[in-house]
Fold this sequence. Notes:
The protein has helices at about 1-25, 40-55, 70-80, 90-95, 105-120, 140-145, 150-155, 175-180, 195-200, 215-220, 245-250, 250-260, 265-275, 285-295; strands at about 30-35, 60, 85, 120-130, 135-140, 160-165, 190, 210, 225, 235-245. It is built from 14 helices and ten strands. The chain has two domains: about 30-130 and about 235-295, 3-Layer(aba) Sandwich (D-Maltodextrin-Binding Protein, domain 2), CATH 3.40.190; about 135-225, 3-Layer(aba) Sandwich (D-Maltodextrin-Binding Protein, domain 2). It is of the alpha/beta class. The strands form three sheets. It has a five-stranded mixed β-sheet with strand order 7-6-8-5-9. The relative contact order is 0.16.
Amino acid sequence: MKKFTVILILASMVGALAFSAGCAKEGKSVVIASKPMTEQYILVEILTFLIEDNTDIAVEQKMGIGGGTANIHPAMLSGEIDMYPEYTGTGWLFVLKKDLINDPQALYEATKEAYDQEYDITWSGLYGFNDTFGIAMKKDLAAELGIETYSDLAAVSPGLTLGAEYDFYEREDGYPGLESVYGFDFGKKTELDIGLKYQSITSDEVDVINVFSTDGRLEEAGLVVLKDDKNFFPSYYCATLVRNDTLARYPELAGVLAMMDGMISDGEMTYMNYLVEIENQDPKIVARDFLIEKGLYEEESD
């Protein structure tokens, strides 16, 4: 009798485990990936908070995938990954291998259409910030000279010193192109290692440097990124890429992803990068605090 009871108990346990496994397998879930970049870690955390707070979909994160787009894009096509943040310039130039479109909105629309047709992948609305190449200088000097745009800078460039790495002066999409489009004529041009640019400008060895426009060190160094008013550099506006079959499976995702349209300015992304890279804060905490500030997330009370 006791043996029979034990068998019944074991059978019940096995059945319960099987039921539990079946429920887990049937549960809603998506996989979100990121490139090995601070900015991307923050963006995936923001996406995770929004999805899990506004739907019953669980998020599995695959952070910091080596090779970035080169490895994430094939994983999207195979269905291993459901979504990830990507940049318009990267999608158009690196993945689609098309000729540059200078107009940012036209570039986005063309990239979005091509991805839908060729890869069955949707580009969400743009987050708002543009992580592209840029020209920066100290905020106080820019204010003193009345400089906001590259054209403004060109007018006073003979009295300033530019610092940049060697290949920036050689590449057509670097200084030679800028010189041609804007008429830059810096009084002095200095070659600097990438790691020394911020040190050189904070110590006033140079007045202007080339940068990535949402670099967290911009905030620490008190720099402002000038406006590329003739759209010389390719635009790298960011959005969520999501597989169309994932959207078909979970149509509620469309509304959640739309919450990020125009949400993040260049300055806000730069500041969040600063908090992680310079202040050593956790990307998850930075993402949560940002959403709370935007009124899009409420922390659960104990």
